[in-house]
Design goal:
248 residues; single chain; alpha+beta; three-stranded antiparallel β-sheet; 6 helices
Length: 248
């Protein structure tokens, strides 16, 4: 945790210095910047131009891309990078989160803070994986899920009476790495099946066990079936029944 806090402090200092000097055309968000430093402290291996694209990290032929959302935007990069060697996509997931409301982006005056009652989980990645599902079974593709405690800063610029609904997220500051889970091959995706599932289960069973919505559960099971981790074994009325392809 101390190392992460040091990285956060160094990152914020760098961001403030670059902002003051007008360096760069955009401000890299803190979670992305900190994880880039965490996985590769040597900046000589960061922001490497490869095959017409810029990789977050490339060292000894291994590419690391840190993606906080919108995995579908990675498709062109993956097409190019996977042909060259190993690629690991790092996905940060908020585990415990404190929401801090700021008056505006200029003053950054803190109005209030609260701990979110919702906890993140590895199952939160499923909706993102749909956008790159055709690459998940590639032998050079690897996925790293990083569960983080973090602070989320939001601006009071929404459309509701309290200006919170429709508000814009300003930044996220990582506080602690809770867990890191690496999926190196399709067989590893069995880890995205809740252990309490029965031998035969439905979408509703998965939704309840994973504590995600039915919509996200459908997406999750679609991906797991696509990868061959689970299979359809019949129906009960109009409800599809699933089981694990290879018993755990």
């Amino acid at each position: 945790m101390d190392n992460l806090q040091n990285l956060v402090a160094a990152t914020k200092e760098k961001q403030e210095r670059e902002e003051k000097n007008g360096i760069g055309t955009y401000k890299e968000k803190t979670v992305h910047a900190v994880l880039k430093q965490y996985y590769e402290p040597d900046e000589a291996y960061q922001e490497q131009r490869i095959g017409g694209y810029v990789a977050d990290i490339c060292r000894d032929g291994h590419i690391i891309e840190i993606q906080t959302r919108s995995f579908y935007r990675l498709k062109d990069k993956l097409e190019a990078f996977l042909a060259l060697g190993d690629v690991t996509v790092v996905y940060p997931i908020p585990y415990m989160k404190w929401v801090i409301w700021l008056k505006d982006a200029q003053s950054k005056e803190e109005v209030s803070r609260r701990k979110s009652p919702k906890k993140g989980s590895v199952y939160d990645v499923m909706r993102e994986l749909y956008g790159i599902k055709t690459y998940l079974s590639h032998p050079n593709f690897h996925l790293k899920l990083v569960l983080l405690n973090m602070e989320e800063y939001r601006l009071l610029n929404g459309w509701s009476h309290d200006r919170k609904r429709g508000s814009k997220r300003f930044d996220r500051i990582p506080l602690e790495i809770v867990n890191e889970i690496t999926l190196n091959e399709t067989a590893d995706y069995v880890m995205l099946l809740p252990p309490e599932l029965e031998e035969v289960f439905t979408t509703t069973d998965y939704s309840k066990a994973a504590k995600i919505t039915i919509k996200n559960a459908r997406t999750a099971l679609h991906i797991l079936a696509y990868l061959g981790v689970i299979k359809k074994v019949g129906k009960k009325g109009n409800t599809i029944l699933y089981s694990v392809s290879d018993p755990r």
